[in-house]
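All the exercises in this workshop are built on plain-text protein records. Sequence and backbone structure share a record, each on its own labelled line. The structure tokens are whole numbers drawn from a learned vocabulary of backbone shapes. The record below serves as our worked example for the rest of this section.
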Amino acid sequence: MLSKAFHSHPSLLKARFVPFYLLFPLFSSVVFVLGMMLAKQAIDRGVSPWTGTFLANVWLALFWAGVAIVRGEIIPVEAWGDAALIGLLFVLGQLFTFLAFQFGDVSVATPVFGVKVLMVAAVTSLLAEINVPLNVWAAGALACVGIMLIQWSDGRAPANARTSRRGLTIILALSAAFCLSLFDVSLQEWVGSWNSFAFLPVMFGAAGVLSLVFLPKVDGPKRLYELKATKWMLGGTLLMAVQAMSMCYALAEFGDAPRVNIVYALRALWGVMLAWQLARTLGTNEATLGRAVMLRRLAGAVLLTVAVFAAIVA
């Protein structure tokens, strides 16, 4: 089914222009960073990351339930098992994402997610039995070099601040990247001949139901108000839901997970730039970073940009 999707879109493998559907991951890459910066404000005020995961999934479930009601169409019951399994991968990816931001800064955790570029290429090649073009592999490797530059320790913060939670942040971010890599490839593989507007409501409905297990750890409205975090968490999770809608639609409707994720990897660039620009306004740790750190992260961001063009134009 996946190979059929590739053959039906020859521009997926050879393109002399940028396919329009790559605008979806580009949009998601910006909105992801904005959403996580808002959610990070709430988490730093004491809100549980389980709350962020639950709310983001509830917004998605409600939106796609509305789509199903308006269209009056969902996939048949025999396909619900596949949709539920994909929904589980999404929930795990979301949970690890919010946990990573509990322990690390936006400008640290976000670039690590870029490893998802190579994970998607590898999973696509191994599980979906598709030969990923050489330029996509090269772009993924280049993107990883950029990620390493962005992730480079600043050397100025106290030793305990640099090391105490950095390892855990990286592990959680890599776990999120792995789960969402499997999610991306499974989504474009198993949607198959189903209409994406009929498949996604069931998938996100399953994700919403699975997220109910987080309720004992979810902060209620009263606690959010007491922590003065209501606007941050609601705004952040809504933006996270919007970017997920955009990414999932692109993957379900057009496939091409490797290049979609390379464009999505630009969130590493926005994660550095926006976190730096808004650091003083939001009072984040990025406000204390030195010039050398910014130059290294900027160099990594440039490599990521080159990787994007190498993958989508070659």
Summary: Residues 1-15, 155-161 have pLDDT under 50 and may be disordered. The chain has 16 helices and no strands.
